[in-house]
Structures are given as C-alpha cells and as structure tokens.
Design a protein that fits this description.
By secondary structure, the protein is of the alpha/beta class. It is built from 11 helices and 6 strands.
Length: 226
C-alpha cells in the first residue's frame, strides 16, 4: 500500500486528487492539507511514502521546503505540481531531490502513474517538458562535474540502468542476482565516490557520463509514463 499526503492550496485540486487516488486499490491517503505547515506536519506525523504538493506556495517554494520535509521523513518521495513549463524551475527542483514534476493540467491522466514511478525509485517529468527540456536540465546538473564510464563497475552500470527505468531496488537486485543489502551498499559507494545525494542524481550523472544514451532515457520515460 502506497501512503500519500496531498498538499495543495486550491480546494478544487485537493478534491480532484483525492477523488482520483481513492479509486486506486494500492493507494491510501493519510493527510490532506493546503500549505507548507501542513506539508511539514504530514512529514513529521505521518511520514507518507509520497507527498504531492504545489511547487509555489504563498510563503515558500518546494525548493526551500524539501530539505525541511526530508529532515522529518527522509524516505518520503516528492511530486511537485506546477503550471508553467519553466526548465529552470525543473532544474532547481531536481537538485533538491524531488523525483516527480507534474503539470497541473496532467493531473487527471498522469497522477497515478507519476506516483507509482517515484514510489518505485523512478524519475517522473510531464511529457511536454520531458521532450523539450531534458537536454537543458542534464547540462545544468552536469555543470562543473566530469565523470566517465571507467569510474563505475559493470554491476554499478547495470544498477544505473535499473534506476533510470524506474525499477525498485528489489527488482534490480533480483535481476542482478544479488541481495538487497548488497545493492544498497553499491549505491552508497557510488554516492560517496561521486558526492551525489540521491538516486535521481545518480541516474542523471550516469547518463551524462555516457553510460546511458539520451535516446534510451527518453524511451524509458515513455515506458514509465504508461
């Protein structure tokens, strides 16, 4: 069961998302709120698997809010709702560790799939932005950092492929015939060696290092979105 908190300042958005999620057998809404205070309370008291929230709130942006949420609930994955296709906003949001970026106009069609994608470790970006701005986002994240495929073992490269395709740790470990603990150790070693902070950054840097082709990631996103 995937536990979810909904944080949106517009009542209509809250009602729409709650109605959509209530139709899914594997979702359970644990908190509904309207502002950054509610987001922090949901993280501290409920520690949901997913928090869906507005990118822009009246008192704070999610870029500022995410570190506070993660302090209370490190394992919670975050999906940001936004209106304008601003690639710089996407870049800033991804840097904080947000792994879902959903256009408000896509809520009805893509909300459920975006939740499942980020819950199982994938990166979800609404298709219009994904098609137009991935190159920009990747180039920005890679600014000043130089990586090469030779820095990573074959096992680590296969883990990158699993992460980029949105597979869970359990699925990746099973495919590589290794334990979940060994997989987590490999990911931890990559973080230490590169200075990266989360699975999203690992996947993006692996792409930029030439380990994964840009066309491969676009195809992977397409599979995750369906």
């Amino acid at each position: 069961m995937i536990t979810i908190a909904i944080i949106a300042k517009l009542e209509n958005d809250r009602k729409t998302m709650a109605a959509l999620l209530s139709k899914q057998d594997d979702f359970r809404i644990t908190y509904i709120g309207k502002d950054s205070y509610d987001a922090l309370i949901s993280a501290k008291m409920r520690q949901p698997d997913i928090i869906i929230m507005d990118f822009r709130m009246d008192d704070i942006t999610v870029v500022e809010l995410v570190p506070l949420i993660k302090r209370h609930s490190p394992s919670t994955a975050l999906i940001a709702l936004y209106t304008h296709e601003d690639r710089r906003i996407i870049y800033e949001a991804l840097k904080t560790g947000i792994t879902g970026f959903l256009l408000r106009q896509d809520i009805v069609d893509q909300l459920a799939s975006s939740i499942r994608s980020v819950f199982y470790g994938g990166l979800y970006i609404s298709k219009p932005v994904k098609d137009q701005d991935l190159g920009y986002v990747f180039s920005q994240v890679n600014a000043g950092i130089h990586l090469s495929p030779s820095m990573f073992t074959n096992t680590e490269q296969q883990i990158f492929n699993g992460i980029i395709c949105g597979h869970s740790d359990r699925a990746i470990a099973k495919n590589l015939n290794m334990s979940n603990g060994s997989l987590r150790n490999c990911i931890s070693q990559v973080k230490k060696r590169t200075g990266l902070h989360n699975r999203t950054q690992i996947a993006m840097y692996a792409l930029l290092a030439g380990i994964i082709n840009i066309e491969t990631i676009k195809k992977s996103f397409g599979r995750i979105d369906t």
